[in-house]
Design goal:
Strand content of chain A: 5-15%
Structural class of chain B: alpha+beta
Helix content of chain B: 25-40%
Radius of gyration of chain B: 21 Å
Number of helices of chain B: 14
Distance between the termini of chain B: 26 Å
Order of helices and strands of chain A: EHEHEHEHHEHEHEHH
Number of strands of chain B: 21
Strand content of chain B: 25-35%
Largest sheet of chain A: 7 strands, parallel
Radius of gyration of chain A: 17 Å
Oligomer: heterodimer
Helix content of chain A: 40-55%
Number of helices of chain A: 9
Strand order of the largest sheet of chain B: 16-12-14-13-19-20-18-21
Chain lengths: 243, 443
Amino acid sequence: MPTVLILGAGSDMAVAIAREFARNKYDIQLAARNVAAISALEQDLSIRYQVTASSHAFDATDFTNHAAFYMALPKAPDVTISVFGYLGSQEKGQSDWNEAARILHTNYTGAVSILNIVADEYAARGNGTIVGISSVAGERGRQSNYLYGSAKAGFTAYLSGLRNRLFHKGVHVLSVQPGFVYTRMTENLKLPAPLTAQPQDVAKDVYKAVIARKNVIYTKWFWRYIMLIIKSIPEGIFKKLKL
Amino acid sequence: MEKRLANWGNYPAISCDETTFSQEDQVQDFISTHSSIIARGNGRCYGDASLAQHSVSTLKYDKVLAFDVTKGIFECQSGITLDQILDIIVPQGWFLPVTPGTKFITVGGAVASDVHGKNHHVDGSFSGHIIDMDVITGNKDTITCSADNHSDLFWATCGGMGLTGIITRVKFRLKKISTAYIRQKQIKARNLEDLIRLFEEYKDYTYSMAWIDCLQKGDTFGRGILIVGEHATPEELNEQQRKAPLLLAAKRKLSVPFNLPSFVLNTLTVKAFNWLYYLKNTKREINNVIPYEPFFYPLDAILHWNRGYGKAGFVQYQFVLPLEKKEGLVAILQRISDAGLGSFLAVLKVFGKQDSLISFPMEGYTLALDFPVRKGLFEFLDKLDEIVLQYGGRLYLSKDARMKQEVFWQSYPNAQKFADIIKTYNGAKLFRSVQSDRLLLTE
């Protein structure tokens, strides 16, 4: 059975992705900062889908331990999915460096640190799939969340470069650009229902894209076109908008 | 986030906020900083029982914690729905000990409503199969309770509509099955007398219920179809079914995509529906072996069937009358027939004996009817309440959206005891719903 490693397994999106892969008979390695918090999910996956699931401690911002974490996994995973992220508070981060650093390190540097390690191993073996859950927020900076957005922009560019490098080694890299998703992270935001996906929708799209070896997907699919429009607004107009 | 929330009857709808949790500490944090909270599962109670200023959705607290395949013991977080549980247990040869007419409810909801099924006269309600459970009470601690341990909390939580706190974990016993099929028998009854006689005749069947056409008058008053069933054995299956006796083929579901205009359901269309339903059984008796899904969950095949009642919504009126008060059933059906207020679906079932604190079932006849919300309905239902009271019956809190508080206090003999236990575990009235305020349980 193939194995998938889920980095940041505590989130609603991670639960949905883990279940989607387990349903399709993947063994699941769950990694999260708080292992106790994912033990119920570990049980859930093995009972529901009769796959092997395991839990591992992983802190995205604890860069020095990333290599040791990856080496200690019971089995090198066939697919690695980086799901972790931190929306944080834009307002706080504008003046509080600790908040800004946490946003940047969780969404960008942390992801780069662990995926560098995974990428080298996959390149050496000549196969494997890396999935990065980025965000449409990374496609154009807006005043309401540009700290988060700029970190995701960096992550998106990283994934694109990684895909270019690893293509020649037989390794598949998938960038996922979710729009609005109903999760605990967005619970206090007023989201427009027709544009907002459920975590299960995202999970299904991710699984299908891994199987089809897609490069970049938007989920829901129409976000590709929404972002095209948003990106095409001239900067002179865009800067005046309250977004 | 502020939103409009209604349960399955789409009545009443209130403006409130809803929060989710996937870890226990998240819900602990929430209740430490909020009040007027009620837990909400899949929103399949019909009225206002799970509506409050702050609704705490359990739907993301949905992990399976243990499943003993040899002993048939299942342990899970409270937000998992019965349909998910069935997908896990049926292929392993186990079934829910008790299931209501929809599988789209959570385990927490099953406990809080102490749901009953077609097998109540044999297996009782859901509470009888619980080994133990965890409840976060108004004192903000998590208490493990069972029939022997913190039994006051246990019995006030079973059927207690979430007023003791938030149910977080439930461990319960399953029922052994050897196939995913039901051997069913449908028998037509010419009238109510005939139907009640049939119930008596077929009382040894594990599962039984009847559909009644409420709009008939005269000789055919209360005509209907009795449906009884047993879990089928492998020998009773046909060749095709026997290949994988515990697996069912996935079926496409229909859905009602939007609220139908309210004129769609009127006396004429309901009459036509009931007429077709009755006549589709051309023989007096039909025997067949069918998958468990259409037997237990016929309406689940049409997602959002509640939208058929239009934007104003509907109330489901479910009452129970003691066994010896059969004439009350006649009196109420007579009223409904005379009023012509139309019920799309009327379901009759005989309950067995049950001792509980606040659960709905008691030995007797229970009838459930749908009424689209319209002018004059509530006055009419108040009149029905009087008849129910007069015959010593009561109403199901999970269906209720409008009962007057005195009806509740007069019809539930343990109401005061229940209110006292709520005071012990939820003294500050942290947990309260629109319903509990209406019934003066938390006022």
